[in-house]
Design goal:
Length: about 290
């Protein structure tokens, strides 16, 4: 009887290890760049039977640990897994960022945001409002397409050229406002997602444009956009790094062009300075 129980436990443990292997693959840079992986690719990478992988993916999806894109059929990490992760590393990032976001607000008197990358999207984890900010305006929990934002460009600014090219191919045509989880901020009308008249032309038309822009970001230490996300709006973002010197987030400031447009590069320098302070707090040495 004891041997039977031990064997059952081992089989269960082996199944758990196989499930964890699938999650690790769906969280890999390859999966993130491509917006997820299909059943065939996961089966290839795990060297397991396609039918077994299909059942495993379905089980994980039912539990909310992964999600399936109905258009592409690809699987990616799901909300439940991010909810668990938010209680660990991301929780620390949010907690540690609070006083640095307040420092940005105190220096420039504009609202500051902490943002992270989610595939082709930028997700705002935390906002620190300036005293003059409209209190109903909230970006926390809202995802927007990364390519048109200073946050998105800063978040991928340390990637290799090959990774950037793959990511651009997967996300160049993403909708601007992708998947808000708490509703769009009051400043953006519901029609904004499909109404291209509210958006200025972007300076990123090809992957070569993006690579040139990323080189400039690395040189300056911050990224800027000028009405590429929304008419009349400019923004600056600078990377936040962890103890491995990997970019794990950005501090972002966005505000009306008429108010901060002439000082956008100076604003970027301030954000970069404070982002570097937060990075050192997290153990970065770069």
């Amino acid at each position: 009887m004891t041997d039977a129980k031990t064997a059952t436990k081992r089989r269960n443990a082996a199944g758990l290890r196989r499930d964890l292997e699938v999650l690790e693959i769906l969280g890999s840079p390859l999966s993130i760049r491509q917006g997820g992986l299909g059943v065939n690719k996961v089966a290839e990478l795990t060297q397991r039977d396609k039918g077994q992988i299909s059942r495993t993916l379905a089980t994980l999806a039912d539990a909310g640990f992964i999600e399936r894109n109905k258009t592409t059929g690809r699987y990616r990490l799901g909300h439940q897994l991010y909810a668990l992760a938010a209680r660990t590393e991301e929780s620390r990032l949010v907690h540690e960022s609070e006083r640095f976001l307040r420092k940005v607000v105190n220096r420039i008197h504009e609202t500051a945001h902490l943002c992270v990358l989610r595939g082709g999207n930028v997700l705002t984890l935390k906002s620190e409002l300036a005293l003059s900010a409209f209190r109903g305006l909230g970006w926390e929990g809202v995802s927007v397409a990364a390519l048109r934002t200073s946050s998105g460009r800063a978040l991928i600014s340390d990637w290799s050229e090959a990774d950037v090219r793959d990511w651009y191919e997967a996300h160049a045509n993403d909708s601007l406002v992708v998947s808000p989880t708490v509703g769009l901020p009051p400043s953006i009308p519901d029609s904004f997602v499909s109404d291209s008249s509210t958006v200025s032309p972007t300076k990123i038309h090809t992957v070569e444009d993006l690579l040139d822009e990323l080189a400039l970001i690395r040189q300056r230490g911050f990224a800027t956009v000028d009405e590429e996300f929304e008419l009349g709006l400019v923004g600056a973002s600078a990377p936040v790094r962890d103890s491995s010197n990997t970019i794990i987030g950005v501090i972002n400031v966005s505000a009306p062009k008429q108010r901060i447009g002439p000082y956008l590069n100076k604003l970027g320098s301030v954000v970069a300075e404070i982002s570097s302070e937060l990075s050192r707090e997290l153990g970065a040495t770069a």
